[in-house]
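This section describes the prediction task in plain terms. A model, or a person checking by hand, is given the sequence of a single protein chain and must write out its three-dimensional structure as a string of tokens. No templates, partner chains or ligands are provided. The sample shown here is typical of the held-out split.
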Amino acid sequence: MKYDALANEIIRNVGGKENVNGLTHCITRLRFKLKNETLANTDVLKNMDGVVTVIQSGGQYQVVIGNHVSEVYAQVMAAGGFQEDRSEAAAAGKTSLFNRFIDMISGVFSPTLGVLCATGMIKGFTALFVTLGLITNTSGTYQILNALGDCLFYFFPIFLGYTSAKKFGANIFIGMAIGATLVYPAFGNITAAGEPLYTLFSGTVFESPVYITFLGIPVILMSYTSSVIPIILSTFVGSKLEGFFKKVIPSVVRTFLVPFFTLLIIVPLALIAIGPISTWAGQLLGEGTLFLYNLSPVIEGLLVGAFWQVFVIFGLHWGLVPIALNNMAVLKYDPILAASFGASFAQTGAVLAILMRTKNVKLKSLSIPAIISGVFGVTEPAIYGITLPRKKPFVLSCIAAAVGGGIIGLMGTKGYILGGLGVFGIPSYISPDGMDKGFYGAIAAIIISFILGFILVFFSGFKDEEAAESKSTGTPRNTLVKQETVGSPLKGQIRALSELTDEAFSTGAMGKGIAIEPLEGKVYSPVDGVLTTLFASGHAIGITSDNGVDILIHVGKDTVKLKGKYFTPKAKQGDLVKKGQLLMEFDVAAIREAGYTLTTPVIISNSAEYLDVIETDLKSIDYRENLLTVMI
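The expected answer:
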């Protein structure tokens, strides 16, 4: 599989599968819930190819992958033998209440985010097509597209019943059954024909509810379509009931009696108490956020815009998602998340400025895909790979995003759906009445955020890291060097790569280099640097020199099948190593007796970054003798 090696290395460096309590993912991150975060090799993960960075926040160990996170997630799940989600009750008490809240919110909502954005985009573009006169709101095309755009949010309690049950370690079908009951269509008809029970603040927050009875107890009927809070709370209580019944009901009848008694109690309880109370709480939350917003929309926009990227770094933006969804269900719009709309464009403008100013080849190569991702609203590659490590561009992009947020607040821009990100999010700001001042405010905000992010970074005296590092060290870590001499890690006979039977090495696909037929079972470090990779099987070692040259030493062919037998590491992954330091020993006779060849390729895996890799002309070589010379 494409990400098989990466998945296995991630699992090993988060402390092994035994250290994983749970795993989910969002747009760019693997979100681990670890039993003990101190067992994870954070520095090793940060420097691993395929990993952007690692963030420890909100009670989660977040490994930032990038746009292909879903593929890596699937491979990690398969490689670790994980269930789709594991109960985290055992570890829940070990983190703060705030961290547990953020973890719960992200666990409940992140699985729905992709489809939620997709259906929101469909609804947004449908509104755009109607506004532009391309279709009418009475046509069959409109009806089908509108149904598709509405389907997830309208039946949101069913979907959240599923994800909430997974998060709380409950039967997912019980969660879905609770959600389905809350949006049961017949209740809408009863609501229309019911009798008023009482009125609280009629005409403001609470409208006159109607009721039916259940065993003589009044049941206040409300509309739970598109709601968020009632199903999450009901599923949480349901998970506790299910756990109780699992303990007291004999296993022979547990399969059907546990759901029977759980649903028989939780559904009436949800309709009688949890649903109405949480609905009123949601209405108060919506009115409260609107009250704060109305105090000063500009200040609210400035603050959300300025700190949005900081929230993203720590995963704290998930705390605002349920508020926005609740506002859309209660108020039919949301002004809070709208203020963050310019942030990704500010970040993208900053990276474009860096791309145009830098002479660093590697930085340029990182900037182009980061810009593309940023245009479509995914900014983690830009943040972690480019702006945040350089600090000043990140701060300037936050300033640009704050200005965009202030414009959105000034223009009264509101989000009417949770649609796509980046440019795909533009239709989300079209009101039901068409393109108004708020919509044009959103367009102005993203344009100004982008331009301002670009101008601030471009004219801020940005110093190209290639030039800055050259002055301080003479040999920058991430740029090309004049020459790097790689010593021999083995003692033996020299072989050309073309003589190998493994096409990955013989064709040069893995990089330029040379091979050694070892006479002794010892591997020494060929350079000063970092032991970046040490496979669990011990058969392969990756080292990055202090000058940035990546070296792969692969002992034998197919020796990974030995699963570490006959290999004895003398250093561990992440160690700083010196040239000539013993890294590993292996039993030459035993490996050959087991039927494996030991011809060992020594590869410069990033040789494409250099002008040439010159091989030694020796026929046999001893430890630490010059084996390869990397030229600029």
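For orientation: The longest strand covers residues 512-518.
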